[in-house]
Design brief:
The chain contains 17 helices and 21 strands. Helix 4 crosses helix 8 and helix 7 runs parallel beside helix 11. The relative contact order is 0.11.
Length: 479
């Protein structure tokens, strides 16, 4: 994968496996494989609804039609044209593209924002289809099963609280087994081949690695693990450039497509960065303008927000709070579901009022092998919804964290401030260069703040000192 969504890992219900060998569709070689092709397809089918549920799909029919059209064209010339491919844009700001076995390919709106022409997109599309055609996920799954490796779900929580933060409990089946560097290099080669075969200039795929390289410092903290599992972008740049030239010569391609302007016009208005309608933090308060609630974030705590739940973890990882929507129809049923879902033994329970909302507050314990975890749960009913706010730490730390838990949950309240409700997201705003000069001068002409110049240079795939000509299209940010 070009970039993995690095906060989330795989959870998958195991299949009945029989040891076998299979022929790789790309190499033609026999290889160790525990998954049949039918099981491989079933794996993707099982995981897809969870991915869509977790991230949501980005609603842009023009972009969706574009990736469908290019994806179908590439699938036909791939090594596995008979799969039923599906191509989707997930509503995530992270620069990310990934594939699941069986033909499922996903692009985040974050990576769509960072492409600067159709050819860059086509190269990454080919790379992801390459993971599918070469059966990389199936290979890694087979190796991990053979080695009896565990499967993990990522979160802001520590291993101690993994069960509570486990997104699989809401149905997520995201397959993210770690690809080796050989797999990534093979997918790069296939990306060059496939994108060239449908008429694009794969040299642009190499140029996109420069964008990824410039995202490195941001990614190391925001998206840990990317650089440790992928070949260095500069190494990939040189290799892909050479492969692109070779494939153009092999196929006698004299005028490959790049299509910069058509792509930029297509992403004009694309949501950029976090979308506040999914919830946002401002001055240590979490606001949800659609569901219209707010609550404070404890000082120094880390927050991870998804469409399914909001996780908050203490700085040293010894306490966790999670807010989710309950699927139950009453407070009593929701409270019982919490005890059942997490195997909790109740300690005490009280009916309370949280800023006008009826609620149940419960203290309950979970016995683990080496320790006891203690939880405080507020089940809150408001505006036709039931919210489950669960906090967990060890029983030894509970008295220390209980005031923080109670302050956060107890300050859950209805959001009424129109300024917080009507906040708008940032969007890609395509501008025409008014006069020739540098990218920096063009960005300043359109009022770009000093602090945003570097980010916009990366977004445009250029350096601030690069020359731009009058009439050229560039990306700016509106909002």
């Amino acid at each position: 994968m070009i970039l993995r969504n690095l906060k989330y890992w795989l959870l998958l219900v195991p299949f009945m496996l029989l040891e076998s060998c299979a022929t790789n569709p790309v190499t033609g070689k026999k290889e160790f494989m525990l998954l049949s092709k039918q099981q491989e397809v079933a794996m993707g089918e099982q995981a897809d609804p969870g991915i869509v549920n977790q991230f949501g799909l980005y609603d842009d029919q023009q972009l969706q039609n574009f990736i469908d059209r290019k994806g179908e064209a590439m699938a036909k010339i791939s090594h596995r044209p008979n799969l039923d491919y599906e191509f989707k844009i997930v509503d995530s700001p992270v620069v990310n593209a990934f594939a699941l076995p069986g033909g499922y390919v996903y692009f985040s709106r974050g990576i769509m924002a960072h492409f600067n022409n159709e050819a860059e997109f086509a190269g990454v599309l080919g790379h992801e289809i390459g993971h599918i055609t070469a059966r990389h996920s199936a290979q890694q799954y087979s190796k991990s099963m053979a080695a009896q490796l565990g499967l993990a779900v990522g979160s802001v929580a520590s291993e101690t609280f993994r069960e509570f933060s486990d997104l699989a409990q809401t149905g997520v089946g995201l397959l993210f087994l770690k690809y080796g560097r050989d797999d990534e290099r093979q997918s790069d080669k296939l990306g060059v081949q496939y994108s060239t075969e449908i008429g694009y200039d794969a040299h642009e795929m190499a140029d996109f690695f420069n964008t990824l390289d410039r995202k490195r410092e941001e990614a190391e903290q925001e998206i840990p693990g990317f650089l440790s599992t992928h070949p260095h972008p500069q190494d990939r740049y040189q290799t892909v450039k050479q492969l692109a030239t070779q494939w153009q010569q092999k196929l006698n391609v004299e005028d490959p497509e790049v299509n910069r302007n058509s792509y930029l016009r297509m992403i004009d208005g694309l949501v950029y960065g976090e979308d506040p309608k999914q919830g946002y933090v401002e001055n240590k308060v979490f606001y949800h303008p659609v569901m219209k609630f707010q609550y404070p974030i404890p000082e120094g705590w880390n927050l991870q927000n998804t469409p399914q739940q909001v996780q908050m973890a203490s700085e040293n990882g010894d306490a966790l709070m999670i807010l989710t929507l309950s699927g139950e129809s009453s407070l009593d049923a929701a409270a019982k579901a919490v005890l059942s879902n997490y195997n909790l033994e109740p300690v005490k329970s009280d009916r309370i009022n949280v800023n006008g909302f009826p609620a149940i507050a419960m203290v309950a314990d979970q016995q683990q092998q080496n320790q006891t975890l203690r939880t405080l749960t507020y089940v809150i009913e408001g505006d036709g919804r039931i919210y489950t706010f669960i906090a967990v730490t060890t029983i030894n730390n509970f008295n220390t964290y209980q005031p923080i838990f109670q302050r956060t949950m107890g300050d859950f309240e209805r959001l009424t401030d129109p300024a917080k409700i009507n906040v708008e997201p940032k969007r890609i705003d395509i501008k025409t260069v008014a006069r020739s000069g540098t990218l920096e001068s063009a960005l300043r002409y359109y009022g770009t703040d000093e602090d945003d110049l570097h980010e916009l240079s990366v977004l445009n795939g250029m350096s601030l000192t690069d020359r731009v000509e009058k009439g050229m299209l560039i990306k700016t940010i509106d909002g």
